[in-house]
Design a protein that fits this description.
With 118 residues, this protein is an alpha/beta fold. The protein is built from three helices and three strands.
């Protein structure tokens, strides 16, 4: 089959993907709580004043990923997944990378920043 035969044309129906970025306390989570049937994957405290469904606070990368796995593989009525918040999730990723490489600092993982792989 030619690659030309695989070309798609026209609009594609896909769910929107949004990133809401801003300083602490300006209402990002509140906005997200008004999305269609949201479920929060919380990586930081701060949802106590918002009426929303959320998984228990994810304190590790594995706990957060388990939430996503459940949503991807089990039946549910949720229509929107909210990661609250991205910067706290990044810390969990860094912690996991450090654990995987047996280092204490993300800059040391996989030989360190700027290491050229051949």
């Amino acid at each position: 089959m030619s690659l030309l035969e695989t070309i798609h044309s026209g609009k594609r129906q896909q769910a929107p993907r949004l990133l809401i970025y801003g300083s602490e306390g300006i209402g990002k989570s509140t906005i997200a709580s008004n999305a269609p049937k949201p479920i929060f994957v919380a990586t930081e405290d701060g949802l106590d004043q918002i009426a929303c469904d959320s998984f228990p606070l994810a304190k590790t990368y594995s706990e957060a990923m388990n939430c996503f796995h459940v949503l991807a593989n089990e039946n549910h009525d949720y229509q929107t997944v909210v990661l609250d918040s991205g910067d706290w999730f990044e810390r969990l990723v860094w912690d996991q990378v450090c654990k995987d490489f047996g280092v204490k600092n993300i800059e040391r993982a996989d030989g360190g920043y700027g290491v050229r792989l051949m």
